[in-house]
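Incident review: delayed structure delivery

Summary: a single-chain prediction request sat in the queue longer than the usual turnaround. Root cause was a stuck worker, restarted by the on-call engineer. No data loss occurred. The affected request and its eventual output are reproduced below so the record is complete for anyone auditing the incident later.

Affected input:
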Amino acid sequence: MQLLMGMPGVRELTEENRGLAICEHCGAAYAVRILEDGQIHPIGRDTCSCGSDDFRLLE
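Output delivered after worker restart:
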């Protein structure tokens, strides 16, 4: 990750753009990235292991 720092278009994961979310379909918990437009994506994968891409952030 160190090599990517400072490159245009590469964002560092911070407390502000990471979180914990629950899959709305099966209830599995994932560490997630929160994109600038509010979309939530599990870190390291595109969807939940059940195939769903509907997640709810835990407060």
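Verification: The chain has a mean pLDDT of 83.
Action items: add queue-age alerting; document worker restart procedure.
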